[in-house]
Design goal:
single chain; 134 residues; alpha+beta; 2 domains; 3-stranded mixed sheet; two-stranded antiparallel ribbon; globular
Length: 134
């Protein structure tokens, strides 16, 4: 187990140092989504606090955008016996069809599907993206 971790870190560092950032990032992304989880039981009153707790307790970098139609206080539960981070996220999104997820640059992003996004927030994000690209 320790040998696999050391080997993974060595390969990722080698790829980063040699300028192959995209391949190294893909290795990091794969490592996050395939990370095993056991006995996850979190109950919170909002999606944001649910994923904040998951991020802290399981050491997973997570960003969350709350769906426009999901502002009421509700009980959200992650009850996951065993599997991978990917399987847990898929389970959550299948139970809460307002949401989807993606992994980008080593961060799990949980966000609303297009028809449930806050349009004003979406325009602000698009404007910031354009500023960053310019």
């Amino acid at each position: 187990m320790l040998i696999n971790k050391v080997m993974f870190a060595t390969v990722a560092i080698f790829l980063l140092l040699n300028g192959n950032v995209s391949v190294a990032q893909e290795l990091i992304n794969l490592k996050i989504t395939e990370r095993p989880l056991r006995n996850v039981l979190i109950q919170k009153q909002s999606v944001a606090s649910l994923f904040a707790d998951l991020a802290l307790s399981c050491d997973i970098p997570i960003g969350v955008e709350v769906a426009q139609n999901d502002e009421d206080v509700d009980n959200y539960v992650l009850d996951f016996e065993h599997g991978t981070v990917r399987q847990l996220l898929d389970q959550f999104c299948s139970e809460h069809n307002l949401y989807t997820w993606e992994l980008q640059e080593g961060v799990v992003n949980v966000f609303p599907k297009p028809k449930y996004r806050d349009k004003a927030l979406e325009k602000t994000i698009e404007r910031k993206d354009r500023q960053i690209q310019d």
